[in-house]
Amino acid sequence: MITDLVALDIFRTVAQEGSVTRAAERLGRAQSGVTTRIQQLEEQLGCTLFVREGRRLALSPAGSTLLTYAEQLLALAEQARQALHPSQPQGRLRLGAMESTAAARLPQPLAQLHARWPQLVIELRTAPSAPLVEQVLAHQLDAALVAWPPPGLDDDAGLVRTPVFDEELLLALPATHAPLRRPGDLQLDTLAAFSHGCTYRRLGEDWMRQARGAPPQVLELASYPAILACVAAGRCAGVVPRAMVEQLREPPALQWVALGRCTTELVARAGHDTPALQALRAALLALAGSVGAPASLTDDDRT
């Protein structure tokens, strides 16, 4: 029977880092101490939790099974700690967000939360919407900001959703592209986008499929700067939230075409509502109220 939450936290950190050395640095512990705790946990459970793949430690089948339960146990322990102090957001909040949301929407509310609740530690991870929802349901994240609905999600059972931001999406085209007066004027057959699971990618694919009568090729990239660079090179189109473009110090000279709107929602597991999560939700809603609806695209914005 596992009763040592510290050992589970060490095990989870090693699994995330794939390295005892990096896990020790992240936890502020001696490398030998981390190794000892993993060995003790393996002896207690009677199985091997990690296997070495080159320089990286990978989870064994037993380790993968344990990680699922470790995430749940540690999340419940954190929820219990916070429940003992319902008026004081503290402890750790694991938040996921799309890259654009993290860059354009989160700096202000996270800074406000840190100033007001210095004992609250927010761990931020970025990923496309669908993987973020999966991580929330798997207890790997406490909440996530996603573009709704994520691709491949059949229903929202087990989730509590809070609409936060109304994002205006823009189709970015090379500056040399002929003016796009109607979808049929599109001359490109490639979309630069994030990996599968990105809601904006799905919307871009749907739009280009309708415009050209065939699905586009997709060039998968890992960041908006890379996406915009490929668009500027004349190779492809891209989908970018207007709020993200406004964060750029010098936006590239591209054509920007209004594509539609998409709601960003804060999602969390049903029944998981800690003081930390309540404070985050309040900060996001306050920001959303102060921002208001995005300005309409003008003719000047299209060039």
Automatic annotation (TrEMBL):
* InterPro entries in the cross-refs: LysR_HTH_N, LysR_subst-bd, WH-like_DNA-bd_sf, WH_DNA-bd_sf
Q: Domain of life here?
A: Bacteria
Name-wise, this protein is LysR family transcriptional regulator NmoR
Keywords for the protein's UniProt record, in alphabetical order: DNA-binding, Transcription, Transcription regulation
UniProt KW Transcription keyword = yes
Source species, please?
A: Comamonas faecalis
Query: Pfam families, alphabetically?
Result: HTH_1, LysR_substrate
Keyword Transcription regulation assigned: yes
